[in-house]
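Long-time lurker, first post. I've been practising inverse folding by hand and with some scripts of my own, and I keep getting stuck on stretches where the structure tokens seem ambiguous. Below is the full token string for one chain I'm working on. Before anyone asks, I'm not after the true native sequence, just a reasonable design that respects the backbone. If someone could post their per-position residues I'd love to compare against what I wrote down in my notebook.
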């Protein structure tokens, strides 16, 4: 018998005799570690002192409002993907990290019996130009500015903003806030890195009417800090001036 064969025979014997097989018995079950945490990949960079880039249009924390146009105005977002899991009848795109977070959100919402779909995601400068000018033609510029952004000033152009609906007849109406989906989002979206960007009562700061359907991806670090400190808008969180008008 070879030395290796003898060792192979002796090892299990030694384990039984020593009794250590019993004390180490429940070798941690691998099933417990994945599938539980709602934010497995959402914490991107371990920055001890948070420094946020508010100007780079590709930054997850870019602040876009009537005082802060995108630079360049015709910025085109990269790494766009088609979010799955959630209903997406018009094939709207989002930046990959925002899409992944939205998929996790939709999965957990679905497990709670809440189903949602995407009305709008990424919009290019050209699309926003068309959209905005249609609204101006319909309602006049002053009115249009209360609910639609000029091209180069829309969060949708960053690929980080999404308009959601649950098909209950409140698409792009305030009553979405009272739907099960609207309430679930208002309570839970922050856990996935999203914030309600245009809250009720903050019109004089954000420059936009209450939009309970419009969520903006900022990453969980910022969304959690805003949630924990009860801060409603990005402008207040970052100490920026209110931007009620252009
Ligand atoms: Zn929107």
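-- Answer (accepted) --
I ran through it position by position. Result:
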């Amino acid at each position: 018998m070879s030395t290796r064969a003898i060792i192979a025979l002796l090892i299990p014997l030694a384990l039984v005799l020593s009794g250590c097989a019993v004390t180490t018995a429940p070798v941690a079950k691998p099933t417990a570690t994945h599938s539980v945490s709602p934010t497995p990949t959402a914490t991107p960079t371990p920055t001890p002192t948070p420094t946020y880039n508010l100007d780079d249009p590709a930054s997850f924390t870019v602040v876009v409002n009537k005082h802060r146009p995108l630079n360049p105005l015709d910025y085109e977002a990269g790494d766009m993907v088609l979010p799955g899991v959630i209903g997406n009848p018009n094939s709207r795109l989002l930046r990959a990290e925002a899409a992944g977070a939205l998929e996790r959100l939709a999965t957990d919402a679905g497990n709670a019996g809440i189903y949602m779909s995407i009305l709008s995601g990424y919009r290019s400068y050209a699309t926003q130009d068309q959209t905005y000018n249609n609204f101006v033609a319909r309602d006049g510029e002053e009115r249009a500015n209360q609910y639609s952004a000029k091209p180069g000033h829309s969060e949708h152009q960053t690929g980080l903003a999404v308009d959601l609906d649950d098909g209950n007849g409140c698409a792009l109406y305030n009553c979405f806030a009272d739907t099960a989906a609207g309430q679930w989002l208002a309570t839970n979206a922050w856990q996935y890195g999203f914030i309600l960007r245009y809250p009720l009562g903050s019109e004089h700061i954000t420059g936009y009417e209450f939009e309970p359907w419009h969520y903006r991806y900022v990453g969980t670090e910022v969304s959690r800090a805003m949630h924990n400190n009860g801060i409603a808008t990005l402008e207040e969180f970052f100490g920026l001036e209110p931007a009620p008008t252009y």
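A couple of notes from the structure itself: The CA atoms of residues 6 and 55 lie 68 Å apart. The mean pLDDT is 86. Happy to go over any region you disagree with.
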